[in-house]
Amino acid sequence: MNNNTTKDTSGLAGRVCVVTGAGSGIGRGIALALAKEGGRIAVLDLNAEGAKATVAEIKVRGGEAAAFTCDTSDSASVANAAAQSAAALGLCDVLVNNAGILRPGALDVLTLDEWNKVLSVNLTGYFLCAQTFGRQMRSKSADQAGGALVHIASIAAEHVTAMAGAYSVAKAGVEMLSRQLAVEWGPHGIRSNAVHPGMILTPMSQAFYDQPGVTERRSQAVPAGRIGVPEDIAQAVVFLASDRSAYISGQSLTVDGGFTRMMLGLIPRAGYEGKAP
Ligand SMILES: NC(=O)c1ccc[n+]([C@@H]2O[C@H](COP(=O)([O-])OP(=O)(O)OC[C@H]3O[C@@H](n4cnc5c(N)ncnc54)[C@H](O)[C@@H]3O)[C@@H](O)[C@H]2O)c1
Known about the structure:
- The structure is a single chain.
- By secondary structure, the chain is α/β, with parallel strands linked by helices.
- It has a single domain (16-202, 229-253), classed as Rossmann fold (3-Layer(aba) Sandwich).
- The protein has helices at 25-36, 48-60, 75-89, 112-138, 167-185, 206-209, 214-220, 230-241, and strands spanning 16-20, 40-45, 64-69, 94-97, 147-152, 190-197, 252-255.
- β2, α2 (48-60) and β3 (64-69) form a beta-alpha-beta unit.
- α1 (25-36) packs parallel to α2, α1 packs across α8 and α4 packs parallel to α5 (167-185).
- The chain is globular and about 65 Å long.
- The two termini are 38 Å apart.
- Nicotinamide-adenine-dinucleotide is lined by residues 20-21, 23-27, 45-47, 50, 70-73, 98-101, 121, 125, 152, 154, 197, 199-200, 202-205.
């Protein structure tokens, strides 16, 4: 018997974890992973059917979850979902801001409506949920007070996504929102960190991979040699939501298989090519 082995706990068992946009893709993967750690999951999504399907998947695996229909860009809708989830599951311990949209649009022709739509979901929605669920984190009794915020931004926060309208601008805003929250709410025992996913196969990105050859070409641009899956992002979120990251706040973690470090690996360089031995 190995006496050095201790039970590896994340401290998430019994904690109320609110995941926005958890009715699909990355959000669903995060909800499943947090439930596996024993978290009690509030699944928030605009798409009621998607949210219910995630809850059903968690319950089949023996976890605890409830679905709440919510438009994260609408303050009344967020307040309503927050009240319902507190009544059903208890006050929020972990918030994962994830609900997002991707829309095409060159900046010279982008309408104000389209600009506002992307910012309202991808940035303002993150602020509204942080404010609303952050109040729940602060309102708990002294021994329970505090919590963890994890914001799903994107490698687009630091790298231009041309022709994608306001997407990168909003994601860059999320990165600074996360840092602001870390500083303003740190004294209340609340940590705030961001995760930057790279190329992940989800319903949002599926259409890219439906084009012939795209999966192969994109995979070649990633040191890990593959496109990511929601579980890749979920494991980073579990870490940042858990007590294992108790002293990490105001930081961003890129989860992209090394893609954003590949610049010099993408061009021909005679004498410096091929696989390392
Ligand atoms: N897929 C990728 O390659 C990738 C890469 C980087 C970052 N991201 C980010 O990850 C997050 C999740 O993306 P995904 O790929 O899983 O997308 P997805 O489209 O599969 O899932 C997004 C979910 O958010 C929900 N949603 C959209 N608007 C909402 C609103 N106003 N209120 C509540 N719910 C809303 C949708 O109904 C959907 O269930 C997004 O923030 C996205 O920008 C994705």
